[in-house]
């Protein structure tokens, strides 16, 4: 079969062979947000959650998840990450916490899944740490914002 596909000639799922691809610096940025009640956001900001530093723990969880992406996503290549960062921004007007995750490597395949996994798990961790006081939180808009490197070059999501 020509091109990259997760199926072999018999139609069975396989991991794509990236052995012939050039090693390049690859970067991906993903983001998402969790919307909550105003008092839940105030609790996070004040550091009063019973389970501890919500955003600090969520940051570590996101980084750890990026490192384990190949264990979570079928057919995803294990990647030696050179950098992972998970950052948060509080949007008080929307009663939300926004998360941005960046994953980097020097390799033969991209890190989009690692960035998306980091953002998603970080937001799930915020939910887990606050669910006792606000089960109605909503995780939304987890998406890829940007990717750099590889044969396809630079891609950026449309604003909006």
From TrEMBL:
Single GO MF descriptor: cyclic pyranopterin monophosphate synthase activity
GO biological process: Mo-molybdopterin cofactor biosynthetic process
InterPro entries according to UniProt: MoaC (IPR023045), MoaC_bact/euk (IPR047594), MoaC_sf (IPR036522), MoCo_biosynth_MoaA/MoaC (IPR050105), Mopterin_CF_biosynth-C_dom (IPR002820)
Catalytic function, reaction form: (8S)-3',8-cyclo-7,8-dihydroguanosine 5'-triphosphate = cyclic pyranopterin phosphate + diphosphate
Residues at the catalytic site: 128
EC class of the enzyme, as a word: lyase
Swiss-Prot/TrEMBL keywords: Lyase, Molybdenum cofactor biosynthesis
Matching Gene3D superfamilies: Molybdopterin cofactor biosynthesis C (MoaC) domain
Function: Catalyzes the conversion of (8S)-3',8-cyclo-7,8-dihydroguanosine 5'-triphosphate to cyclic pyranopterin monophosphate (cPMP).
Entry's family note: Belongs to the MoaC family.
Name of protein: Cyclic pyranopterin monophosphate synthase
Organism: Parasulfuritortus cantonensis
Organism ancestry: Bacteria, Pseudomonadati, Pseudomonadota, Betaproteobacteria, Nitrosomonadales
């Amino acid at each position: 079969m020509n091109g990259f596909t997760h199926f072999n000639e018999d139609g069975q799922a396989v991991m794509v062979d990236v052995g012939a691809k050039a090693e390049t610096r690859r970067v991906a940025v993903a983001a998402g947000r969790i919307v909550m009640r105003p008092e839940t956001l105030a609790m996070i900001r004040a550091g009063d959650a019973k389970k501890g530093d919500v955003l600090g723990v969520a940051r570590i969880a996101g980084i750890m998840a990026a490192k384990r992406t190949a264990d979570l996503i079928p057919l995803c290549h294990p990647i030696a990450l050179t950098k992972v960062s998970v950052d948060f921004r509080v949007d008080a007007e929307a009663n939300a916490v926004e998360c941005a995750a960046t994953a980097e490597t020097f390799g033969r395949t991209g890190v989009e899944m690692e960035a998306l996994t980091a953002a998603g798990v970080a937001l799930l961790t915020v939910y887990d740490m606050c669910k006792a006081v606000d089960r109605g939180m909503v995780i939304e808009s987890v998406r890829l914002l940007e990717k750099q490197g590889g044969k396809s070059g630079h891609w950026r999501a449309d604003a909006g």
